[in-house]
Design a protein that fits this description.
about 260 residues; alpha+beta; Aminopeptidase; 2 domains; 8-stranded mixed β-sheet; GNAT family N-acetyltransferase; GNAT_dom; acyltransferase; transferase; acyltransferase activity, transferring groups other than amino-acyl groups
């Protein structure tokens, strides 16, 4: 997130707002671009908007156009420490929907205390890239259905996955899985191709929770990163997900920022 500080220029003429693509609007004054608005549709179908401008008046104009031309609800995400930007979205009618903590997670097992962590009896961990694709997709779908039937998937970490419609396992090589009696019961997804590795998801079947499966998956993922000289990793946890927060707090992870998801209904 960049630091957004608005200027209030009372003599600035209103901007002309033009939709230049299906997902983008430009704000211009005298043929000079003074702002832009963008929209993306996430895999769960929700529309997320962003606005880039230094001018408070242009920001309001762009929001007015977006809320007129897009179906509701509309969402956006801001770093809660960016008070000017947060206030601007609230001023234009958006309201808080959820908060998500970003954690910095050490990978050294002597720091996390996971060096002696073993899978629960009867559970084995298949390293990333070794899971069979069919069972992996089946457990992914089953877990998503269980989450959607309980707290709702919107309370899981935000996902930016690019694949065919309905495909939530875009790259099976990123997943390690927990197996019990030849049944896939949990999974962890780690994205390494970034400046900092990201733990994108840890999830366990409902009937296998509170048995140490998630902790074993996390221990495996962090140990693999540490052996490759990678760390710290990062992840996001919804503030309402007390079990996930306890898991990461318990391994010495540090909360480094807070993202606020806002919605206009």
């Amino acid at each position: 997130m960049y630091s957004q500080q608005f200027t209030f220029e009372t003599d600035e003429p209103p901007a002309a707002i033009t939709r230049v693509a299906d997902t983008q609007w430009l704000a211009t004054v005298d043929d000079r671009t003074v702002g832009s608005g963008d929209v993306t549709r996430r895999p769960d179908g929700r529309l997320f908007v962003s606005i880039d401008t230094w001018h408070a008046g242009v920001f309001d104009q762009l929001v007015t156009v977006l809320r007129t031309e897009l179906p509701k609800p509309i969402y956006t995400v801001v770093d809660e420490s960016e008070t000017d930007l947060t206030t601007a979205w609230l001023r234009t009618g958006f309201t808080p929907h959820r908060r998500e903590w970003e954690y910095s997670v050490p990978t050294d097992p002597t720091i996390t205390g996971l060096d002696a962590t073993a899978p629960p009896p009867g559970v084995t961990i298949l390293p990333a890239g070794t899971a069979a694709e069919g069972p992996l997709r089946a457990v992914d779908r089953a877990i998503r259905d269980e989450v959607e039937a309980s707290i709702g998937w919107q309370h899981m970490p935000a996902e930016i996955l690019h694949g065919p419609s309905g495909d939530t396992v875009v790259d099976p090589s990123k997943y390690a899985v927990a197996v019990r009696s030849d049944r896939y019961v949990g999974m962890v997804r780690v994205v390494r191709a970034t400046r900092r590795p990201r733990i994108g998801l840890i999830a366990v079947r409902a009937d296998q929770q509170r048995r140490g499966v998630a902790r074993a998956l996390l221990a495996h993922a962090l140990a693999a990163l540490h052996s490759d000289g990678r760390g710290p990793a990062y992840c996001e946890v919804d503030e309402s997900n007390s079990a996930a927060a306890a898991l990461f707090d318990g391994v010495g992870a540090q909360r480094v920022s807070c993202n606020l998801e806002l919605v206009l209904r």
